[in-house]
Amino acid sequence: MSARVATGGADHSGAHAPESRPWLGFGLGLRPEYFEQILASPPPVDWFEIISENFMVAGGKPLHYLDRIRARHPVAMHGVSLSIGGTDPLDRGYLQRLRELMHRIEPAWVSDHLCWTGVDGINSHDLLPLPYNEATIGHVVERVQQVQEFLGRELLLENLSSYVEFRDSDMPEWEFVACIARRSGCRILLDVNNIQVSARNHGFDPHDYLAGIPADRVWQVHLAGHSDYGTYCVDTHNHDVPESVWSLYESAIGRFGAVSTMIERDDHFPPLPELLAELDLARAAFARAVPVAST
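-> C-alpha cells emitted (295 positions)
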C-alpha cells in the first residue's frame, strides 16, 4: 500500500533519516464534512487519516464511506481513547475493536496520543499530560509493549499540546518522548503545531524539542492551526496553519528528512479546495526543506 523513499543522508546536526521509513506523501484528516466530495471527485490527496473511534462500530454510514474511500486511498488510523498513560488496566474490549478495524481497512499505521484520558472507567474525552520522569516512562513503556503485542504491530504515539506542568517532572518533554520511543520500540507521530503551542505556553525553544527527538523513530507529522491569545495558545485545529508552524515544519523536515505529513482540521471547516490549497503549501515547505536534509 505504501511507497517507500530513500531518505538517507545527514543534516547539519548529524541526524539521519532511515531508509525504511514508509512514505505516504501529503494527507488530510478524513472528516464527514468532505465524504461526498471525496467520492464524487477524488481530490489530489495522497492519503487520509481517520479518527479510529469514529469507525469502531459494527456498520452504518461511517464504515460505508470509509470502505469506499479506502478502496481509492491509503489510510492511517489515529485514536484518542487508548489512554496509554492511564492507571486503569488497558481496555481489552477497546483494543479488540481497534484490532478489528485494523484488519478491515489495513491501515498504513495505527497511532494514538502520549497521554491519559480517564480514570476509574470514566473517559474525560480530554488528552491529559503526564509527569515526565522515570517512573512514568517505565509505566508507559510496559503498556505500549502490551498494546503492540496485542495488535501485532508497532504503535505510533503523538506528542501533546499542554497547558500545565507537573512538579514531579524532572526532564524536558522531548527527552520523555524519546525515551519511551526507544525503550518501547514504538514510533513517533510528531505534531509540529503541538510543539509550537507548548513552547509558547511553557517558554521553551521549539528547536530544542526537535533536536531532542531521535530521527529514526519519527514516522509521521501533523500540521494544524491554533488559537493565539497573546500570552498563551490553545490547540484548536480551527484555523489555517500559521506562519510559526510552517517555519518549524521546515526545520523538522530539515532535521528528520522525508516524513509523511498531514493537516488536521476539526472545526470551522473551510471548503475542500481551501484545504487542498493549504496542502500545497505543505508540499512547498517540504520541497524547500528537503534539500537541507539531503546535504
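The mean pLDDT is 92.
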